[in-house]
Amino acid sequence: MTGADAVWFANLATMQPGRGAYGAVADGALAVLDGRILWAGAAAELPQPLVTPATGIHDHPGCWITPALIDCHTHLVFGGERSAEFEARLAGDSYEAAARRGGGILSTVQATRAATEAELVALARPRLRRLLADGVRTVEIKSGYGLSLDSELKMLRAARALGREHGIRVRTTLLAAHAVPPEFAGGADAYVDHILGDMLPAALAEGLVDAVDAFAETIAFSPAQTARLFASAAALGLPVKLHADQLTEGGGAALAAAFGALSADHLEYASQAGIRAMAKAGTVAVLLPGAYATVGARQPPPVAALRAHGVPIAIATDCNPGSSPMCSLLLAANLACSLFRLTPEEALAGMTREAARALGLAQETGTLQPGRAAEFAVWRIGHPRELAYWMGGLSPLHVSCGTG
Ligand code: DI6
Ligand code: FE
Fold it and tell me: How many Cα atoms occupy the beta-carbon half-sphere of 47 within 13 Å?
């Protein structure tokens, strides 16, 4: 047996299924070799040959180690901000009404098109750093504020550049089907043709697409348009995700499931049939309490039905300038508990194990078990439920990003 590069001693919230609440191991040890987890369990049972004179020992008695956090749904890269829209909504305007007037997403499109790639990186950098301060080391970033070939590619390149700059894992999602751009006003089908014929192939050729997403909604794309996009993505071997049933019941959950989507996100208005289909397809439900709170939604997502059917639940910030100007995943976890009645354990699973699943990374990260990447956070807390209890603001003592 090879010795470990490092061994960390603390309580472990492994989040491994079948290991009890939080997959917890009191007084645990986590051994790391070459950036992977070699062994995780009770310190008293740590195989002695793993510790050699060259092994680094990190002792954090009473602290907790969790998997590094994963924000599996963000629109982190964008130009401008929309505080005037926020103010108007507080005075009685609605999110949909602003979108129909050509404000909403399209106003961010204008600002994003006007920015260079370097400017987009500079604008997103402080937002990313706030996420990282929460212990996040994997971030999904969507395009969708460019809505032209050049600007969508610019957004995806900016997202990848941010990942490289910070040495973290960034997964990029092509969300060209976020809104119909002004050049295609009244011609959503022609715009979908443009996505399929030009944007998707170009983004793929440049290696910029990990998944394809769409906003299926009365103010955005129809089920038929979404299905056409998903069929093309599937033909190219790309996984899909969907903004589904956020503002109205549009059959989004069932549509996502029909294409074996990694996730269906939002889901406030998801139907029972849609939830059953998601359970069958293994599609993760990504809940976004920041958007729920910010648009002034009244109907929370059907958490009881998701649980009853065994649909995996993830949570994310949905960080974006319109419906969720939020850069703290820990705050999202807190709100998921207070607003959606998730348990603190579900909230932690939702930003580790299930968030990894929502990105197709379940075999790579999100739990503390042998073979997974050594991506973990050390917290000075008395119990893992504290991560959901504090309304953000908690910072890990240390985050390992693959090197132990
Ligand atoms: N749903 C959302 O909550 C975000 N996108 C989407 O499809 C909002 C994006 C925005 O308003 O800028
Ligand atoms: Fe979103």
Answer: 11
76 lines ligand 1 (CB under 6 A): no
Tell me the residue range of the domain where 270 lies. 69-358
On whether the pTM is more than 0.90, the answer is yes
CB distance 404 to ligand 1 below 6 Å: no
Query: What are the backbone angles phi and psi of residue 72, rounded to the nearest 5°?
Result: -95, 10
- List the pLDDT tens digit at each of the 404 positions of the chain: 689 999 999 999 999 999 999 999 999 999 999 999 999 999 999 999 999 999 999 999 999 999 999 999 999 999 999 999 999 999 999 998 988 887 899 999 999 999 999 999 999 999 999 999 999 999 999 999 999 999 999 999 999 999 999 999 999 999 999 999 999 999 999 999 999 999 999 999 999 999 999 999 999 999 999 999 999 999 999 999 999 999 999 999 999 999 999 999 999 999 999 999 999 999 999 999 999 999 999 999 999 999 999 999 999 999 999 999 999 999 999 999 999 999 999 999 999 999 999 999 999 999 999 999 999 999 999 999 999 999 988 999 999 986 44
Both tokens of 301, joined, read: 């997502």
Specify if 310 maps to a domain: yes
Q: What is the 78 CA–ligand 2 centroid distance (Å)?
A: 13
Q: Which of 142, 166, 151 is nearest to 319 (CA)?
A: 142
Report the number of distinct structural domains present in the chain: 2
